[in-house]
Amino acid sequence: MFKSSLELNPTMDLNYSVHQLAPDEDGLYAQASGSGSTSENFKVVVRIRPPLPRELRGTGLRAYQCTTAVEPGDRNIILSENLLAAVNQQGSLMVDAGALYNTYRFTFDYVYDQHSPQDRVYRQSAQQVVLSILQGYNAAIIAYGQTGTGKTFTMEGAMEGPDRGIIPRTVEDIFTYIVNDPEPSSKYLVRSSYLQIYNEVVSDLLKPERSPLAIREDRRKGVYVEGLSEWVVRSPAEVYQLMQRGQALRATGATKLNEVSSRSHAVCVIIVEKCTTPGEGAGGEAGAASAASSAGGAPPWARSSTASAAAGEVSVPTIQSIK
């Protein structure tokens, strides 16, 4: 479907709406270049989902009772069998609460209550991780929890609107960054993969055959899945099409909490490669050589490009930086 080489230029029309950043605006490009970054490499956050309608109705023996509260500062979560007695009017845990009721207090990098919107969760806990990819670092965002706790809603949610999850917002930020890259010599190649881990068997959700894949480790590649297909994508819409195709093949099963609960672990992989040619302008000779080499179907950094002023002169190899 998208199995072809592609060169993304920051000035090309991607046929989707992106936010064009002003030159002096503190936007995605400034953040990904180091502004506002933190030195923390690992974060753990907790999100509390709102109760379902059937949970609010309760059962014949016991009415619904909220057992979680987030303290001011959004870093501490309180679990108690009697929140009214354990938490004071300011929302903090009282000192002697544990003597009367089973009450626990845990601290994380951030805690989101049941009213936290998708946009807040992404911007405070995921966006900086995504922007670090554009600096050349590997990054991973993992949602963990039992069935019915809202992992799929947090990671995927809707593909448009305010309920978009982390993956759609990640894809949007990546392509927005590409469109607003001020370097005229920058060229991008974006690829996506979608795999499933079910009963300890790894399989490709974007291939018709369901053969198991092996996890390998290489000095150059690091840890990778052998035989996993990679699809070149030109816009967020193409990433969503791949995800929808893969979700139709995921193993699901009914549980007491969710009728279509996923019985497998799904991993969405996005690979962004950036090629920069120092000293190359938008209309320079090196730029013309790169355009000529990419016209043959291969990405411009697949091999060394050359530039010559006239026929018969010795070609000079162009130095390219790949991130």
TrEMBL record:
SUPFAM superfamilies: P-loop containing nucleoside triphosphate hydrolases. One of its GO terms (cellular component) is microtubule. Residues 287-298 have a biased composition (Low complexity). GO terms for biological process: microtubule-based movement. ATP binds at G145, Q146, T147, G148, T149, G150, K151, T152. Residues 281-323 are annotated as: Disordered. Belongs to the TRAFAC class myosin-kinesin ATPase superfamily. Kinesin family. This is Kinesin motor domain-containing protein. It comes from Astrephomene gubernaculifera.
